[in-house]
Design a protein that fits this description.
With 475 residues, the protein is of the alpha/beta class. Helix 11 runs antiparallel to helix 14. The protein is globular.
Length: 475
């Protein structure tokens, strides 16, 4: 490596002393500066004789740190080394998925309002260097059943706890509960609150567009910011759980279907903003209802188990959603699974009846719309609202939540939507499975907190925070 760098320096020195510019054929380094949009004639001295493809392979072998050093040799080297394709290669070889990083850096880096930056306008060498200097953040995903928390540099959440909506004394003021909740999270992570920015995902608790709903959402967000800043957190980003889950799927617009712990919410989102005016739909069937139904069925068959954890494990490993419910009733669907400590359990029709509650809530005694009906209604209302000239934004349906990982759910929902909606609307509909299951919102927050522009683009500092301010907190 040192020998190669010495050759580069010697070549550059001879080139600068002679002050000459050489030209070469189209397959040499001097005729192409490794930029698909620009051809610049320049010289790298003796290295002009190396074909461009071999030359770039050498730069890749050097690695990002050594390659970056070559930009100070001379202008010719700087033009070659700073090419986007080389640094895209380096970014692709990091642990995080390249598709997610590319989506984040071209779509989310400006903060809100979202602006898309074409690849040609980006300097990925600069982005690489900025991402390496991002301090990271503490991520707290409020969740609907339980909270997921961890550091943004981790591959996954490091711990779980009760959601702050159910944490501590529920009769205590929200601010006090939040202070206790956040202090507990920082203690479990063994970090000081003043050392890192924090990203908080906020579960949707008020679904309407009335003044009461708007005030309730604003007060919850202000309570989060106030509790954080009173704990000396340097900067805070509070974003809706639904929006973060959509970002995790590399989308900024679409309909987010979150099958939560207590209920399922159908959330229309346009350019990162929840369209409360269109309306958030709620189906009172969530993971808890499915687990409760499966427990009742097992008890009726005199199957003994020690806790709901066993039932949940069986739901996650044996249950599925029937693509054709009537046809599934005629099949032999018996299957067994061994739960650690508890032993073997066998399920029959319960395997698909449990998931069928989402489409036929009456099975579990719920008098409400099915999931497919709620999503179809949301799509129709988005179409009628005419919020964007491009009506394809609401044809992307993204699932989120652990229960949304049930096999067959994506195919069944796609099928039902095409049956309910007219062809003019259903054409082009795409149902996307949960990108990260129950942790989708956490991974969406991870995208934000590893951005090259974080925390300035998304976070609020204490000096900028004013309760009841006119600042638009869209999330």
């Amino acid at each position: 490596m040192s020998y190669f760098l010495k050759l580069i320096l010697d070549s550059a020195n001879r080139f600068n002393s002679s002050n000459s510019i050489s030209s070469s054929s189209s397959n040499s380094v001097s005729s192409d500066v490794y930029d698909s949009d620009q051809i610049i004639v320049c010289s790298t001295g003796e290295f002009d004789r190396i074909p461009i493809d071999i030359f770039i392979q050498i730069l890749k072998l050097l690695g990002p740190k050594e390659a970056a050093k070559l930009t100070v040799v001379c202008k010719s080297w700087r033009l070659i080394v700073s090419g986007n394709l080389l640094w895209i290669y380096f970014l692709q070889n990091q642990l995080d998925p390249w598709d997610s990083k590319f989506f984040a850096e071209t779509t989310l880096r400006s903060g809100y309002p979202l602006r898309t930056y074409p690849c040609q306008m980006q300097s990925f060498m600069q982005i690489y260097g900025q991402r390496a200097q991002v301090p990271g953040a503490i991520i707290i995903d409020g969740g609907s059943g339980y909270c997921k928390f961890g550091w943004s540099k981790y591959d996954a959440p490091s711990g779980r706890a009760a959601t702050f909506l159910e944490f501590g004394n529920i009769e205590a003021p929200m601010y006090s509960r939040l202070r206790h909740f956040f202090a507990t999270i920082y203690s479990r992570m063994q970090v000081k609150s003043y050392t890192q920015p924090t990203v908080v995902s906020i579960p949707i608790t008020q679904y309407g567009d009335t003044q009461y709903d708007k005030t309730a959402r604003r007060k919850l967000k202000e309570a989060i910011y106030s509790a954080m800043f009173d704990m000396n957190v340097p900067s805070v980003c509070a974003v809706s759980q639904a929006t973060l889950a959509l970002f995790a799927a590399r989308k900024t617009s679409g309909i987010l279907v979150n099958i939560g712990f207590n209920q399922t919410s159908v959330v229309p989102i346009l350019q990162g903003k929840i369209m409360y005016k269109v309306g958030v739909k709620v189906v009172p069937a969530g993971a808890l209802k499915l687990i409760g139904y499966l427990r009742e069925q097992m008890q009726q068959r005199n199957q003994r188990f020690s806790s709901l954890y066993t039932v949940r494990t069986l739901k996650e490993n044996l249950c599925y959603v029937a693509i054709d419910y009537q046809a599934e009733l005629q099949k032999d669907t018996e299957a067994s699974y061994e739960v650690p400590v508890e032993g073997w359990f066998t399920l029959k029709q319960e395997r698909f009846l449990t998931g069928e509650i989402l489409f036929q809530p009456l099975i579990a005694g719920l008098s409400s719309k099915g999931l497919h009906q709620a999503v179809a209604l949301c799509i129709e209302q988005c179409h009628a609202a005419g919020l964007s000239p491009d009506d394809s934004w609401f044809k992307t349906v993204v699932l989120a939540g652990g229960t949304a990982c049930l096999p067959g759910l994506v195919e069944r929902l796609d099928k039902e939507l095409r049956l309910l909606l007219p062809p003019s609307i259903s054409s082009g509909i795409r149902v996307i499975p949960p990108p990260y299951g129950a942790d989708s919102a956490w991974y969406g927050a991870k995208l934000l907190s590893n951005l090259s522009t974080f925390p300035s683009s998304w976070c609020i500092d204490k000096k900028d925070f004013r309760p009841k301010s006119k600042r638009n907190l869209f999330w």
